[in-house]
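Incident log, structure service

09:12 report received: a user says their structure output differs between two submissions of the same chain.
09:20 pulled the input from the user's history:
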Amino acid sequence: MNAPKTADFYPYLWKKNKGIFFRGVSDRGGTGFGKMGTGTYVTWDKDMAKTFAEISSMSHKGKPLIKKYKLPENIKLLDWQGSEAWAIRKKLTQHPEENPDDPVFAKALTYFAQKKGYEGFISDDVADGIVVFDPSKMKELKK
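09:34 re-ran on a clean worker, output below:
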């Protein structure tokens, strides 16, 4: 098995944002989509986080919040659009291009990525963003 290597575009995003990423939630919870596995979802775009905060506040009837997190520069993120992630998705479903809204599917994605040594997924789609499987790997920044 090859050592996990983070997606090529993460170092650029990390440097551009100085390691700061955003999460949009309400004071009563997040959106709970779980498309790329289980964990904490963040994005590099504050406006996208704001959109998710508004969606969360509507569905949870709460106040929208944008949280800031510092992610490690050396975190191992698997490229969601890459061949290795595609192989995992193909192992789990006959239609890997689709992403079922299913907590068991999300847990299985997480399990197989972790088994390969990854700590999360990263997508080149700002709406999908980044999922970090273990929230202790990231630090929430207070204002």
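09:41 both user submissions now match this output. Likely a transient worker issue. Closing.
09:42 reviewer note: The chain has one domain: 10-141. The CA atoms of residues 120 and 128 lie 12 Å apart.
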